Amino acid sequence: MSVSAFWVKWLLRIYPPLFFQRIWVQSLSADFKQARVKINKSLITSNYNNSIFGGTIFSATDPFYPVMVHQVFIKKGYNVLVWSKSSQILFVKPGNTDLFFEAILDDAHISEIEHIINTEGKHTYFFDIEIKNKAGEVCAAVTNEVYIRNLNFLAPEDGK
């Protein structure tokens, strides 16, 4: 279902797994190619060492690329299935302040994915995200593997 970026931004803001971990969508572009996200450091999100829980950081990155890819392709007229297949995180330094990241889909990503789902029917794509503190220092690096399937793809018949 195609929806406006305004509504998706607000739905993600109040979505309980993000809301209760104090993850706030600051902006989502109308074309779904850029999202800015803030992870608020608070009593609820702080661990024993007074830094943001690793699980909070990790879960903050989970929904954005699948939602963005899905909406971009729905708006292009595709019937697609998109979901997070796997993720990997590297904690670089403690998140002792609020943390920030951007999820960006550029035209090269979109063109590559479109070509592959039109020729092979499905694809997994890896997106990298750097989570930074207020000073702009990288605190964590996440790689999200996103699965995309073109539900209208018809494989060519073998030898016919």
Q: Can you list the strand order of the major beta sheet?
A: 1-2-4
Number of DSSP strand runs: 6
Q: What is the level 1 CATH name?
A: Alpha Beta
Q: Which blocks of ≥5 consecutive residues have pLDDT under 50? A: none
The count of helical stretches stands at: 5
Structural class: alpha+beta
Termini separation comes to 35 Å
Question: Helicity, in percent?
Answer: 25-40%
**Main sheet overview:** 3 strands, antiparallel
- Return the string of H and E elements: HHEEHHEEHEE
Beta-strand portion reads 25-35%
The CATH topology: Thiol Ester Dehydrase, Chain A
Write down the Rg: 17 Å
Per CATH, which architecture? Roll
Name the average pLDDT.
Answer: 94
Principal-axes geometry comes out as elongated
CATH homologous superfamily designation: Hotdog Thioesterase
Protein name: DUF4442 domain-containing protein
Organism: Mucilaginibacter ginkgonis
InterPro entries: DUF4442 (IPR027961), HotDog_dom_sf (IPR029069)
Pfam family, one: DUF4442
How would you summarize the topology of this molecule?
Layout: H1 5-14, H2 16-19, E1 23-28, E2 34-39, H3 54-61, H4 64-75, E3 80-91, E4 99-104, H5 107-119, E5 122-132, E6 138-150
Antiparallel strand pairs: 1-2, 2-4, 3-6, 5-6
Describe, in plain words, how this protein is organized in 3D.
- This protein is α+β, with helices and mostly antiparallel strands and 160 residues long.
- The chain contains five helices and six strands; from the N terminus they run ααββααββαββ.
- It has one domain: Thiol Ester Dehydrase, Chain A, CATH 3.10.129.10.
- The protein has a three-stranded antiparallel β-sheet with strand order 1-2-4.
- The model has no long low-confidence stretch (mean pLDDT 94).
- This is DUF4442 domain-containing protein.
- InterPro entries: DUF4442, HotDog_dom_sf.
